[in-house]
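Before the break, one more example. Copy the sequence into your notebook; we will annotate it together after we see the structure.
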Amino acid sequence: MQFLWAGLGLICVAIAIIGIVLPLLPTVPFLLLAAFFFARSSSRLHNWLITHRTFGPMILDWQTSGSIRPGAKKAATISVIAVFGLSVLFSVPPHFLIIQALTLGGVMIFIWTRPNG
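Here is what the structure looks like once it is written out:
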């Protein structure tokens, strides 16, 4: 079972790394999942992830207080605006824009109502 948890954790880390480059793919939720999986499979991988210079503080903020740092909130907002702007620029059909606006709006409400880390 430990191999399954570790494998899922590694997949989540890979998806999170891809999400750094692709603006529509979230990074932090996959890192949180990876931390969850690693906590159940490998203390070495779990410690690596939560002590990581870039990813660790975000994970610990969420685990301890459910908070998101203001810089991360701003970066998420810029990404959402960029993605929606590209959709408008590429003339995505209006019904898709509405779905996208509602979804991204919900994500922004969630992010901005979390406490600051």
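The chain has a mean pLDDT of 91. The chain has six helices and no strands. Try to locate both features in your own notes.
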